[in-house]
Amino acid sequence: MANEVVLLDFWPSMFGMRTRIALREKGVEFEYREEDLRNKSPLLLQMNPIHKKIPVLIHNGKPVNESIIQVQYIDEVWSHKNPILPSDPYQRAQARFWADFIDKKMYEAQRKVWATKGEEQETGKKDFIEILKTLESELGDKPYFGGDEFGLVDIALIGFSTWFPSYEKFGNFSIEQECPKLIAWVKKCLQRETVAKSLPDPEKVTEFVSMLRSKFVPE
Amino acid sequence: MNQEEQVTVLGLWGSPFSKRVEMVLKLKGIPYEYNEEDVYGNKSPMLLKYNPIHKKDPVLVHNGRSIAESLVIVEYIEDTWKTSQTILPQDPYERAMARFWAKHVDEKVMVAMWKACWGPKSEREKETKEAYEGLKYLEKELGDRHFFGGETIGFVDIAADFIGYWLGIVQEASGVTIMTAEEFPNLQRRSKDFIGNDFIKEVLPPKQKIAALLKAQFGSVTSKLNVIKV
């Protein structure tokens, strides 16, 4: 049976980036469809009726929603190469735990940094830096979060790096100064073709975030 | 069981999250030790804002190594002990669906339900609506199957243990009724079957104890925003 894979996505989405990377890691041919979030396609609404969010992975007509769930699905279906989750159950649990941590903590925290100002932003910035430091400490001296191999947690986090210049610009701080090991890890990941191909130019992301910010924070 | 296998659950007696882990261990016939956690951390109301679900209980300790987050633990148990009673389906698509619905329970239904019962008064109507809608999706997804797992208890059933047992008690204690038998016949039926299961029954905390705890902690429905501790 032919493998038809469609990805409904939005170019600056750090969540969509995860699924793009996973598909490329497995060498899966897929059709990328850009969604206009102000004018969502009937297909998106049909395939993700509860959340109406991207990314939506459609495999042979059947939708899989939620990026970390999509990445695990991709790993299980195309299990022949580049494993994304480790084979050891304990390592798998650690990977899932940290992917879950990133999902629960990163999005809300980073949002405060660019979408607010004043005291709310200062608190948000502090929280965000703390989260980054926690992640940096988890990374330690390993090349990737999973150890020697690029895996789930790297995929879960790397997309946020395209938003780093935005956080730095609006939060007025340097991520490299706060978390040098994390920045080194970002650079290492970007050397991977699947990652480089799946991430947008951070400059373009900053332009986009500036536009978004002007809606939330009238200057 | 291997003499060297040391499995310990650190949990809170009344918590649906702790119980998820115990339920799966029981269903799979894995012997374990239970330790009631001493720490009853005083978490700030800000926690509710970020995510009331991200708590410290339960923790599974297996041969000296610890795993946290109830659903991560459940998957770990599934990965580690290959028993005939499986919690997740074999098919990758069915597994993805199970994970999706488990996440839906955690993030859409449980959060909204707590806030509907004990959140800021101004938000309660909105949260009640959200909890109701979340439950409706689950009702539809369950259909006329015995359990979300089909004929046997599965991953989503475990995730939805709160709906199967605690929800009724919470509704009584708070005076907020979101899930009625008339509007949610499928979920109601599943709840009965779920708590009727011998293994599940073994680990459920006594109803009166939970009700008393809730009433003592949260007082009347009109009390101000409190920390969710259960």
Automatic annotation (TrEMBL), chain A:
Pfam families in the cross-refs: GST_C, GST_N
Using the record's annotation, list all stretches that form the GST C-terminal domain.
88-208
EC number, as in UniProt: 2.5.1.18
User: What is the main EC category here?
Assistant: transferase
Q: Tell me which InterPro entries the record gives.
A: Glutathione-S-Trfase_C-like, Glutathione-S-Trfase_C_sf, Glutathione_S-Trfase, Glutathione_S-Trfase_N, GST_C, GST_C_Tau, Omega/Tau-like, Thioredoxin-like_sf
Residue runs in coiled coils: none
Which reaction is this enzyme known to catalyze?
RX + glutathione = an S-substituted glutathione + a halide anion + H(+)
SUPFAM superfamilies named among the record's database cross-references: GST C-terminal domain-like, Thioredoxin-like
* Top-level lineage group: Eukaryota
Predominant location of this chain? cytoplasm
Localization annotation: Cytoplasm, Cytosol
Keyword list (alphabetical) reads: Cytoplasm, Detoxification, Transferase
**PROSITE patterns the UniProt entry points to:** GST_CTER, GST_NTER
GST N-terminal domain segment(s): 3-82
Q: Which PANTHER family match?
A: GLUTATHIONE S-TRANSFERASE U19, GLUTATHIONE S-TRANSFERASE, GST, SUPERFAMILY, GST DOMAIN CONTAINING
Family note: Belongs to the GST superfamily. Tau family.
Q: What name appears for this protein in its UniProt entry?
A: glutathione transferase
Q: From which organism does this entry originate?
A: Camelina sativa (False flax)
TrEMBL record, chain B:
Pfam families linked: GST_C, GST_N
Where is this protein found?
Cytoplasm, Cytosol
Q: Which EC number(s) does UniProt give? A: 2.5.1.18
Q: Where is the GST N-terminal domain?
A: 5-85
Q: Which UniProt keywords apply?
A: Cytoplasm, Detoxification, Transferase
Query: Catalysed reaction per UniProt?
Result: RX + glutathione = an S-substituted glutathione + a halide anion + H(+)
Please list the residue ranges annotated as the GST C-terminal domain. 91-213
Q: Does the keyword DNA-binding apply?
A: no
- Using the UniProt record, give the first listed, main subcellular location: cytoplasm
Tell me its family: Belongs to the GST superfamily. Tau family.
Q: Which PANTHER family match?
A: GLUTATHIONE S-TRANSFERASE U8, GLUTATHIONE S-TRANSFERASE, GST, SUPERFAMILY, GST DOMAIN CONTAINING
Its recorded name reads: glutathione transferase
State the organism named in the record. Camelina sativa
